[in-house]
Each structure stands twice: as C-alpha cells, then as structure tokens.
Specification:
Blueprint (H helix, E strand, L loop, with lengths): L3 H12 L7 E4 L15 E6 L3 H5 L7 H14 L5 E4 L6 E3 L7 E4 L10 E4 L15 E5 L7 H15 L3 E6 L3 H8 L6 H22 L6 E9 L10 H6 L8 E9 L10 H9 L2 H17 L7 E7 L13 H16 L5 E5 L8 E2 L9 E2 L1 H13 L5 E6 L6 E8 L2 E9 L13 E7 L6 E8 L10 E2 L2 E2 L2 H4 L4 E2 L7 E2 L4 E7 L2 E8 L1
Helix pairs in contact: 3-11, 4-6, 9-10, 10-11
The structure holds 2-acetamido-2-deoxy-beta-D-glucopyranose (NAG) (9 copies).
C-alpha cells in the first residue's frame, strides 16, 4: 500500500485544498556559538523499579529492548546512555544477601509504582543484558539510617558494572521531595551538607573497592515542572553555597515535564494541541534550561535533562501514548539540541502512559513499540553518524509548525519540517497540508525524503519513519520496510518544495 501522504501532497499542490502556505523560506546561516550535537542526544531514563522488566537479566535478556536500543547505534554509531533511577530510586534498598534481583512492594496493586524496592546483587545482571551501554546508576538519598547501606550499593554497582558504570546519581528530585521526608527545618544548606558528606563516603568506598574506575556524579537531578514550587532552592545558590567542593560532578542534570497528569485536567485532545503540539510552548518550556546552562557554563560540565518526558505522573492516555506526542518529541529534541542541551533522557517505566515501548506483557498490555519511539528514531536519523553535526532552528510564523536545518560542519546537509496541526485519524475531511519552499545552496541537486507519519495525531499504531516500522509484532523491534520510500525531490532554481500533511514531519537529506 502506498502511504497516503503522497496523494495528500498532490491534493495540496494541484487542487489547492488545505492550507498550503507556499512561502519561500530562507535557511539561516550557522551562528558562531553553535556547538556540535551529541550523537546520544536521544538517551533514556529507566525507572529503577522496572529496570529488570526492560532489560531482563543475563540468562534471559529482553531481546525486544536490546533491538530497540541497537537501532540507535546503527543510526548514530553510538548507543543511547541509560540512567536507572527516578522516584523509585529513593525507595530502593540494596540487600547484599537477597537472591532475587528485585522485589517490588506495592501499597495498592494498581499503583503506577511500588512503594518499596528491595534489590540484591542479581539486579546488576540486568546491566549486562542490553549491550555495551554506558549507565548512570541511581542511589537512594532519602534512606537516612545507614551510610553502610549507601556505600554497599555503590560498591556493588562499581564491582559488577566496571567500565559500563559512567556516573552515579544521589537522590531524585530532592528540591520537590525532601519536604516530604526531611524535617521542616531542612534547608538548602542541609541538603548541601548531606550530599557532600554522603558522596564523600561513596567515593572513598569506591576508591577502595574498585581501584582503577573513576565514576563521577550526575547532579543535582532537580525537577522543574509547573507543580513544583521550591523558590529558595535555586541552582545558582546551590553552587555558590559550597555544593560539591571536590568537583566530582561530571554533568549538571535537571528534570523537565511539560505538565502533570493531575487535576484540573483539560480535555485531552485540546491539551495535546495546546501543550505538546505547540512549538511556542516548547520554546517557553525549554527557555529556563537554556538560560541556566549558559549561567552554569563556568562550571565546565555538560548540561543534560537527566529525566524528561511529556506529562509528569507517567503520562496521560490520549495525549502521551499517541502520535502527536512523537511530533512533540521531535520538535522538543531538535530545539534543545539547537540550544546546546547535551542529552535528553526520556523516562520509561512499565505500563507508563508516555513510555517509548512496553517491554513485556503486563496488566494486559502486550509488548509494543509506542509512538514516542518513532519520534526518537527520526531525531537520531537527523543527527546521524557525523562528529560535527550542528542544528539551527528555522523560524516559522505559527505555533503549529517548526523547521530545522542540520549542518555537517558548516555545510547544510538536512532539513526537518514538522507540521504540528492536530489531525484525527477518524476525520472525514481530506487531510490538509502545508507547502514549504526552502532556498538552498547551489551545490544541492536533490533530496531524499523520509517522513514520520501515521493515520492521525490520535493514532496509537501504524506509525512509520521513512516507510520503516519497528513494531514488536513484525520483527521484535528490528526495522521492517512496510512502505516504499518516496522518490527523490528535485531542486529547481536552488529551491526545494515540500508538502507536509497535518500531523506529520519530514526529514530531507540533501544530495549534491
Ligand atoms: C545493525 O548493525 C549491526 C552491527 O553493524 C548489524 O549486525 C545489524 O545487522 C544491523 N541491524 C540493522 C537492522 O541494520
Ligand atoms: C532472570 O529472569 C528470568 C525471566 O524473567 C527469571 O525467571 C529469573 O528469576 C531471573 N533471575 C534472577 C536472578 O532474578
Ligand atoms: C531540625 O529539627 C530536628 C528535630 O526535628 C533537630 O533535631 C535538628 O537539630 C534541627 N536542625 C537544625 C539545623 O536546626
Ligand atoms: C524562602 O526564604 C524566605 C526567607 O528566608 C522565607 O521567608 C520563605 O518562607 C521561604 N520560602 C519557602 C517556600 O521555604
Ligand atoms: C501555544 O503555546 C503558547 C504559549 O504557551 C500559547 O500562548 C498559545 O496559545 C498556544 N497555541 C496553541 C495553538 O494552543
Ligand atoms: C571540574 O571538573 C570539570 C570536568 O568534569 C572541569 O571541566 C572543571 O574545570 C573542573 N572545575 C574546577 C573548578 O576544577
Ligand atoms: C561531513 O563532511 C565531511 C567533509 O566533507 C565528510 O567527509 C563526511 O562524510 C560528512 N559526514 C556526513 C555524516 O555526511
Ligand atoms: C479530534 O477529536 C476530538 C474528540 O472527538 C475533538 O475534540 C477534537 O476537536 C478533534 N480534533 C481535530 C483537530 O479535529
Ligand atoms: C546515616 C545518615 O544518612 N545520616 C544523615 C541523615 O540526614 C542528615 C541531614 O538531614 C545528615 O546530616 C546525616 O548524615
């Protein structure tokens, strides 16, 4: 079956149906301060409690997860980095004598997360199941009755993970959580003293037990989200007040969500358009991180979003498990990359409503590649294998559209256009599209066309990028071509013309 966008593009061009803007857009030149984009921009954060469900273990690795991660390596040449942490990290206790890898204790069986996690040495087998991946292992800061428990966990990690242990993290979203389990007089200064003394104990234990390894810390892993109000906890204040005197931090990590799945809830399809499928809103949400990254550049650490996703509290059905979320993910990722944010760890958990894939059958939900994964694959494809890739936003007029230029060194090499106008798969009207013309350098003779498409922004399946499906049911997450690739587009008079249906995106790879 030919994909429908070809027909729709023709409708736009020849019959004039829809909102074909037909403007000639100039591609901005590369600004002097642009930095190369990390090939592992698309990275992951796996909820601590559910890491074994995602990874499996040595004797039975989760091949589906392994395939989905391997796809990134094939596209960019490097694996995503994986942080194992989240709220459940601060409810996890390491028991050196426990035989089972992990025991999850749920307060209510239908809760999204267990209230307690007990893990033993076998938990670390999961780190060997997915491939040669660099990990960030989360340690519990909330637990406050034994330093030994903390250092045992750190030592178990460095002993079993060796060089695959990239960083530790101590505590999750303390700027929001500390008030729930520390006394009322717990201040920023208390936090600084606690973090400094606990990380000193961790590093001493690691130096003794794992000589030759040198893992640092990802910190402070605070969260910025609409519901978090911790006005006296600013990172500028943190670093000015004696945090990390030994400079063991290697990466500054913040967490970010675009909203929360909590009352009052706006209608879901309205929120999808308003909050996620909205370039202006993405720009506004990322702005504080861009500013903070610039202000903290003097520290000499990369700035990453160590845990992020669309809507906090594990997402919202109809908004984060649908194709519109994949389009949000592409725009959010490219905007962040264009503004020197080094990595985005998209948070994952079993049965979560925003997860990129469901790794095993659980609560009636079968293993499945979900829409956000396809957005991640498109971003990875835009970045590719180059070591000097730079990304620049191409300003457009509306909230519901977005475009980027990708450079190899100083040479324009790719274009991305995202049409963020919601389109329901059940709609009966012809699918409208927007028509763009870009002015290109004279050496460009044509372009390869790869589209991110689905029946609608509310689709949970039938998604492809470049005609390729990564569905579990086809080949367990390996790529399968299900649509023919569209023919090359020609470049006439140094101009390329491309039609982008509502709720879809396109990657043009320029050919000389
Ligand atoms: C990915 O790359 C590996 C190693 O080069 C190769 O063995 C494998 O066939 C590739 N997979 C796909 C789906 O291209
Ligand atoms: C490894 O995974 C298999 C399959 O889920 C499970 O039966 C086994 O108990 C796990 N091993 C450990 C040590 O947890
Ligand atoms: C905070 O309150 C606790 C009792 O809840 C007390 O033991 C501790 O000394 C107080 N700390 C400071 C810094 O005032
Ligand atoms: C912030 O600090 C000020 C001054 O110390 C204090 O009055 C205020 O209550 C604090 N706010 C919060 C939310 O702790
Ligand atoms: C997009 O977001 C901006 C900023 O939050 C808002 O002002 C605007 O109304 C939104 N546009 C749409 C189409 O929802
Ligand atoms: C701290 O370490 C980082 C590398 O992780 C380095 O770039 C920075 O200059 C160091 N800062 C100080 C004050 O030594
Ligand atoms: C980038 O340009 C360099 C120099 O022209 C070339 O060798 C390299 O293959 C290009 N990389 C990509 C990913 O196109
Ligand atoms: C999609 O369907 C929902 C629910 O029926 C409706 O509220 C929304 O306006 C529709 N959106 C578009 C873009 O047609
Ligand atoms: C054993 C332990 O972890 N104690 C810590 C409890 O928390 C306070 C700060 O609130 C630290 O100072 C202690 O070291």
């Amino acid at each position: 079956m030919r994909s429908s966008h070809i027909v729709l593009a023709a409708t736009c061009l020849f019959l004039g149906v829809g909102t074909c803007s037909n403007r000639l857009v100039a591609v901005p030149s590369l600004p002097g301060d642009s930095e190369p984009v990390s090939r592992d921009l698309q990275s992951f954060s796996l909820e601590f409690a559910f890491f074994p469900d995602y990874a499996g273990n040595k004797s039975s690795p989760n091949l589906f997860s392994r395939n989905l991660l391997q796809n990134f390596k094939n596209i960019t040449g490097v694996y995503p980095k994986v942080r194992v942490g989240g709220t459940s990290q601060d409810n996890s206790i390491f028991y050196p004598n426990q035989e089972e890898g992990v025991q999850l204790i749920f307060t209510h069986p239908n809760d999204d997360q267990p209230s307690q996690i007990h893990y033993g040495p076998a938990f670390f087998e999961s780190y060997e199941a997915l491939g040669d991946i660099q990990y960030i292992h989360g340690l519990n800061m909330k637990q406050n009755n034994s330093i030994q428990q903390l250092t045992d966990a750190a030592v178990a990690a460095c002993r079993s993970m060796g060089s695959n242990l990239n960083l530790y993290e101590l505590g999750n979203e303390i700027n929001m959580e500390a008030f729930k389990y520390r006394p009322a007089n717990y201040t920023l200064q208390s936090y600084i003293e606690e973090w400094n003394s606990k990380t000193a104990a961790i590093m001493n234990a690691v130096r003794k037990s794992c000589p030759g390894t040198n893992p640092g810390l990802m910190a402070p892993s605070w969260v910025i989200a609409p519901m978090v109000k911790s006005e006296n906890w600013t990172i500028e204040e943190l670093f000015k007040s004696g945090f990390d005197p030994r400079n063991i931090t290697r990466e500054i990590s913040f967490h970010h969500y675009f909203g929360a799945f909590a009352p009052p809830l706006a209608p879901v399809s309205w929120d999808l358009q308003r909050t996620l499928m909205n370039h202006t809103n993405i720009v506004e949400n990322v702005a504080p991180h861009i500013k903070r990254a610039q202000e903290l550049a003097y520290l000499g650490h990369p700035y990453v979003l160590g845990e992020t996703n669309a809507i906090a509290n594990q997402g919202r059905n109809g908004e984060t498990n649908v194709f519109g979320d994949a389009l949000w993910l592409v725009d959010f990722s490219l905007w962040s990359a264009a503004n020197n944010i080094k990595r985005l760890h998209f948070h994952q958990g079993l049965n979560y409503r925003y997860t990129s894939w469901q790794p095993i059958l659980s609560k009636g939900n079968p293993p499945k590649t979900r829409p956000p994964y396809y957005g991640q694959i498109m971003v990875a494809s835009a970045i590719g294998k180059g070591h000097d890739t730079r990304i620049v936003n191409i300003p457009l007029q509306e909230d519901r559209e977005s475009a980027y230029a990708v450079f190899n060194g100083t040479q324009l090499s790719k274009l991305v256009v995202i049409n963020l106008q919601a389109y329901n798969q059940s709609a009966t009207l012809n699918r409208p599209s927007k028509d763009y013309q870009f002015k290109l350098p004279s050496h460009v003779k044509g372009a390869k066309v790869e589209r991110l498409s689905a029946p609608g922004s509310d689709s949970t399946g039938s998604i492809t990028f470049g005609g390729v499906s990564y569905d579990y049911d086809l080949l367990e997450g390996n790529p399968v071509a299900v649509h023919e690739l569209e023919g090359l587009v020609h470049v006439d008079h140094e101009t390329v013309r491309i039609s982008v249906p509502d709720s879809s995106a396109v990657l043009l790879t320029l050919l000389s």
